[in-house]
Amino acid sequence: MSKVLKKRNDRRRTKKKELLCSPQIQDEVEVQSSIGDLVLAAELMEKVSEETRRGLGEISKCITHDHGDYCVPDDPTVLKQMVKELKKTSYHQNQLLLSLHESLDNKEKQCQELQEKLENDRWMLIADMGQQISQLESEIRNLHCEKEILEKKNRDLQEQLAKSSGTVLYLGQQVKDQESQSEEIRFCMNSIKNENKWVRFYTGFDGYEHLNDFLGFLTADPKLCTGKIRKRTEVGPQSALNLEDQLLLVLTRLRLGLLLQDLAFRFRVSESTVSRYWLNWTELLHARLTQIPILYSSRYLDPFEPKRNIQHQGLNCTILDCTDLFFEVQAKDRVKAASTHPCRNHYLRRGYAIASANGFITFSSSLPFGIATKVMDGQPQEELDGGINPPLKLPPFMQNVPIGLTQEQQDMSRQVLSLLSLIDKVLNFRFLKGIYPQSMEMQVDRAWVICCYLACLLHDPMGLL
């Protein structure tokens, strides 16, 4: 096979040398050889693609194929046209190849730029992370330092607390001792309740137990206590004194006739607080004590003088004139002294006892009487004027209609035998012996009623003459 190919090639070379002798043939041969090369290259590429499909055995056929006999057009115009088209095709392919190279260069530049940007971003991110890590490490170190400082302070404070615990206990004991001493120095129920002599002197009751029972009786009715007194266990503003000390304050003023300033100093409270306690508790005492039935003996009522018979709201009563209550006359109302009588600096109000026909007695003061008189059973009787301020309210059990007493009223009921003895006991309350301004008329009238009932409670029965 190789010998045949060699002979063919030798014959081809000899033919080419003969044709190349003349210049025309030489030009034609050059054109033909260039065309043949192009055609051979195109056919080779086509065959290579086919060989990729068919197999390696066909490649030898294409290589051994003789292109020397390829048909070349004789017309120079056609040949020239073919050459132009081939040049044009080659030019377009070169241009396309250049554009592809330029595009490839651009892509490579973009890729390089992206790689550089990625590298820069990576280094910036690494730098930021390194900075953050360093900051966090610095903060951790600072926190560790602060923790150590706080732990040291905590240890120091614990040591100081352990050292000062004895001092605190000592100071606490001193505070308790001072409080107990101040409690003993301050005038209160705790300072006198163990001494019956002082309880009797300041309140009139025989002992603390009796006084405590009386306090329970006063506070048993919640309707009367509402808005007047407040216990320390209740919700709201707390009182400066407990209930026992408040009652002690009121009874002490009734028994000794002390001023508000004196009581404020004794109980270590303000004067306005003392005044509020006085008004609230006297209202409560008056409302609660007037519910107690007081019986009297007609044997001691008949010889009592002065007295008068009156009729009030259809009820026959006997008014007993018991004592005088003194009040100051205002400077503008004082009568100028004359040669026949001295200047009057005070005026009087009467303290009365009112006895009903059914055997009960109550108390009031300064009752106005009208001029109208009625004759009943041969004796003149005055009609009580209705313009009383405050109006006279008699207890229900003093009415003509028989009303049964409750169990509480039966237990608390008292009996008065001698009215003279009653008045002596009432006047032991020094508050009634003072001289008060005109603005205190209602307070003194209420105190007269309270003292009369207290005298009945503290002395049972009320003496014999």
From TrEMBL:
Stretch forming the signal peptide: none
Coiled coil: 97-167
UniProt keyword terms in alphabetical order: Coiled coil
Protein's UniProt keywords contain Coiled coil: yes
Domain Transposase Helix-turn-helix: residue ranges: 240-290
Pfam family, one: HTH_Tnp_4
InterPro entries, alphabetized: Transposase_HTH_dom (IPR027805)
Plastid listed as a keyword: no
Protein name per UniProt: Transposase Helix-turn-helix domain-containing protein
Species name: Pelobates cultripes
